[in-house]
Specification:
Number of helices: 15
Distance between the termini: 60 Å
Helix content: 25-40%
Number of domains: 2
Mean pLDDT: 97
Low-confidence stretches: none
Strand content: 15-25%
Largest sheet: 7 strands, mixed
CATH architecture of the largest domain: 3-Layer(aba) Sandwich
Radius of gyration: 23 Å
CATH class of the largest domain: Alpha Beta
Number of strands: 24
Structural class: alpha/beta
CATH topology of the largest domain: Aldehyde Dehydrogenase, Chain A, domain 1
């Protein structure tokens, strides 16, 4: 399937194209145009012109637009799910879940837009003030650049695109090169809708050259990026005076204390560590287990892990499919070999077949090992024994990242301490740190990023406040 560029509502072809192959069977599933700096500039200039008209379109009209997209996406659910599986190898049952989540994100964005606005403030609250009519309002920020990753190629676009559009902005989307058709088909739902705001969305493809042209331009007022820490740092350095929101890496951890339901914790941890082949920013990577239950928990987790169905992503029973590319598979194996050389023990997994890397559980892991210090982004989880909550907390917080952490416990004291003492953007009690609801404020601290996603909170990123005083 050939993808095209969208310069506003107009589809444009190019002379040079690249192929996308399915990570599992290596069949060509889509082709996309190779863009350059000039394409980025053209998309930005068009978005700038479109914003002049689009900012005045009523919210009710924009809501009708998104409702129309929701209707069409529901009708094409199976088609979109297959495209996701084709391009990134996500198991089909989870691709279907992603489409459902995308629909929910669009609906949540509509609901949030209805409630989102300004409020009055009391200008006479201090002696220096006086009695006037005073309030602030939220206005669209202008042109927004959206840069999205491969692991949730549909829903993570929706998390940026829907709030930005509902605020009245014009957009340039640069999706991941690994899943161009997902973005193309999704944008097409917007550009072909009878309710569309003219030329409000442009779509270009590319890597560093195109991304840098978008980020360094003086046209956009906001940049929203989900991806790696190194790229996030480059964006922050080069963007200039703009609103920048970054959802970057993570090194998610949990603590299993001596009061936890071990069987339940093992089942959930096997999901949190290995769903989407561990290619999730909040994929469970570090498990700190109280020494009194560590051995029993490790055995339970290994049993749960060995029961997972791994392989063909088109099989509806498959839990875990391939990694995105050969480099990811080779990198995962290097993590394992490095950990083994440092003294870690593989109790299940630790092997690969093609790009399918089998879910791996490591024990005898220590703080000095790279496997717990860096983001792995692969189906590998490490178990570390600890003496008590304090040791677990210190080890969990001893990370340059801080996206989401969790604890499995029946102790109210440990629950309260985890909520207050874990250094992260989100804390989950008695479930995996991989848990995310699309309505929640999602984002991290430290190297995990700046800003928050979730429709209501993204609207803050894509808007600006104007203060009004009527004397």
């Amino acid at each position: 399937m050939e993808c095209k560029i969208f310069f506003g509502d107009v589809e444009v072809s190019k002379t040079k194209y690249a192929d996308i192959r399915n990570p599992y069977n290596q069949k060509v599933v889509s082709t996309y145009p190779i863009c350059d700096e000039n394409d980025a500039k053209e998309a930005l200039n068009l978005a700038k012109k479109a914003f002049i008209k689009n900012k005045n379109i009523t919210l009710s009209h924009r809501i009708e637009w998104l409702e129309d997209v929701v209707k069409n996406l529901k009708e094409k659910k199976e088609k979109f799910a297959k495209i996701i599986t084709d391009e990134i190898g996500k198991p089909i049952k989870f691709s279907l879940v992603e489409v459902d989540r995308c629909i929910e994100t669009l609906k949540l964005s509509i609901s949030s837009a209805i409630e989102f606005g300004g409020e009055t403030f009391n200008a006479d609250a201090m002696p220096s003030g006086r009695k006037v009519e005073s309030y602030y309002k939220r206005e669209p920020i202008g042109v927004a650049v959206l840069i999205t990753p491969f692991n949730f190629p549909l829903n993570l676009i929706a998390h940026k695109l829907a709030p930005a559009l509902l605020m009245g902005n014009s957009l340039v989307l640069k999706p991941t090169p690994e899943a161009p058709r997902v973005a193309y088909e999704f944008v097409k739902l917007f550009t072909t809708s009878k309710y569309r705001s003219p030329n409000a969305i442009s779509l270009v493809y590319g890597d560093a050259e195109v991304g840098n042209a978008l980020v360094t331009s003086e046209i956009p007022s906001a940049i929203s990026f989900t991806g790696s820490v190194p790229v996030g740092k480059i964006i922050l350095k080069n963007a200039g005076i703009k609103k920048v929101s970054l959802e970057l890496g993570g090194n998610a951890a949990t603590f299993i204390d001596e009061s936890a339901n071990l069987s339940e914790a093992a089942k959930k941890c096997s999901i949190g560590a290995f769903i989407n082949s561990g290619q999730v920013c909040i994929s469970l990577q570090r498990i700190y287990a109280h020494k009194s239950i560590a051995k029993e928990f490790s055995e339970l987790l290994a049993k749960e892990t060995n029961s997972l169905i791994v392989g063909n992503p088109y099989d509806k029973t498959t839990f875990m499919g391939p990694l995105i590319n050969e480099d990811a598979s080779s990198r995962a194996m290097s993590w394992i070999e490095s950990a083994k050389a440092e003294g870690a023990k593989v109790i299940c997994g630790g092997k690969s077949k093609g790009r399918v890397f089998y879910p791996t559980v490591l024990t005898d892991v220590t703080d000095e090992m790279n496997i717990v210090c860096e983001e792995v982004f692969a189906p590998i989880v490490s178990i570390v024994e600890v003496e008590n909550f304090d040791e677990a907390k210190n080890k969990i917080n001893n990370s340059p990242y801080g996206l989401q952490y969790s604890i499995f416990t029946n102790s109210l004291i440990n629950t309260k301490r985890a909520i207050n003492e874990f250094e992260c953007g989100g804390v989950v009690i008695n479930d995996i740190p991989t848990l995310r609801f699309d309505i929640q404020p999602y984002g991290g601290v430290k190297l995990s990023g700046i800003g928050r996603e979730g429709p209501k909170f993204a609207m803050e990123e894509f808007s600006q406040i104007k203060s009004v005083v009527i004397c």
